[in-house]
Amino acid sequence: MLQRALEDDVLVLTLNRPDKRNALNLELCRALWDALDTAGTGDGSVRAVVITGAGSTFCAGADLDGVYGDDFLEAHYGMLGAITTVPVPVIAAVNGPAIGGGTQLAAACDLRMATAAARFAVPTARNGLAVDPWTIRRLVHLVGGGHTRGLLLAAETMDLAAALTSGLVQREGDVTDAIALAHDLAGLAPSRWPTRSTCSTRRSSRTTTLRSGRSSSRASPARTQQRRTPPGANDADLSFAGGDVSACGAPRGTSHPCRGPGATAGRTGRHPAREGAHRPHRGRVAGHPPARRHLASSARPARRTSSR
Questions:
Q1: Per-residue b/e over 194-206, b at no fewer than 16 CB within 10 Å?
Q2: 200 — phi, psi (to 5°)?
Q3: What's the CA gap between 126 and 117, in Å, rounded?
Q4: Which one of 212, 232, 252, 260 is at 20 to 30 Å from 80 when CA atoms are compared?
Q5: What is the phi-psi region of residue 118: left when phi exceeds 0, alpha when psi lies from -120 to 50, beta otherwise?
Q6: Are 23 and 62 in contact (CB under 8 A)?
């Protein structure tokens, strides 16, 4: 299902379902998720990760025999979130077609190397389906709006030359070249990559919302209890709806600093100021004297009227 090999300080993860062209199912997504969590919360022995596929295909997308249900969706988006939040570089060694979920998997990585046999496509439009918001934002972030429209609206296929030109792929090479690059990255400063628990740039515990309105709730002993911000944090794909904290930072079910003693944080994620709390009197700013226009009318000098 998933082969793991540690070459010095580089972890190589190989999708090993050649009979299914390395299509993603529930077990494979969970295995990738767990492997990346282990790499991010370990003792620092893993300093780079390479993801590739067995045989002649990188990943043919989702296995249609087992993708229906919330369990697969949570595992799929949790796996993508793990790729974008693990505090070590992740390189996709695209050794063949990366279709649908395969393009998502490659796009979630930090760098991509590909061979001449690589192909990238998201043929969702041909099936009359919509693409999730994270995939749209991620592709726009990587290749720009024009190439993203070609992939998603026109269901175009990118070969290696087009992928290099658009910036989706950084270098041409096979898995050996990707591992060599990973070793180069591992040798760069800092001397030790911070783990997820200590990395200050990834200390957010907000809920992963890769799929609009859906959070990842699956947990295991090897997995930290922190919820992930997708993917990437670079894409600002954040939502407070249904999360563990309110919009002003108060934990759910605890005393709310913005509402006074005894009040608790709401479940809508809206800041109390939007719900009526703290709202200063119209026309005046808290801590400042009332504006002149709000003085009582009796205090104003009477307007003289001419009798002529």
A1: ebbeeeeebeeeb
A2: -70, -25
A3: 23
A4: 252
A5: beta
A6: yes
